[in-house]
Amino acid sequence: MRVVKEAEERRNEILDAADELFGQKGFDGTSTNDILVKVGIARGTLYHHFKSKEDIMDALIERYSVNLIGAAQEVALDKSVPVIERILRVVMALNVNSDNGSGKEVMEHIHRPQNALMHQKIQKVIISGVPPILTPIILEGIEQGLFNTPYPYECMEMVIVYANTIFDEDRADMTNEERTSRVLSFIFNIERLLGAESGSLMSVMQIFGKGRDGNE
Description:
single chain; mainly alpha; elongated
């Protein structure tokens, strides 16, 4: 008997299968036929839900983004947490090395060379999605006298673009000494961008100050 499933359930089955296959074989190494076999559906069923393999990838990234950005947003809205600590927690919610459910799963295979397009797309999501989350926290900091800048959004945009580029896991060529130097200069300049007291953001080191193997 042919099994008929609800559209959303079938769509999620396709995404789950693609997620697993992309992780094993990479985006370019996975064919639509691989996905069909994995799910056990006809080609017409797949194309009823997705126009192409890239369309599947976009849907996967959207799903990851909802989880990543949603986690960061939840942290950002908790005003019981002090401003600077909340900023750190938002960054931790987006930290590619954290155990963050499906966000961790995508990052484990998104940095492989064969998944460069996925990597580029997730970077775009982070760069566009995170500054609007951090900006209200910066405005709170301004009200509390912690920061002094007329450009809170633009500051956060600069910070996220730099952090997402320089501290990206693809920078395997960076030595620990070079990484430490960049971390120190990064925090030094963030404090000046925000008009913060010198040294007030050095706790960011606990996030960015670790080597790729997780050691100080």
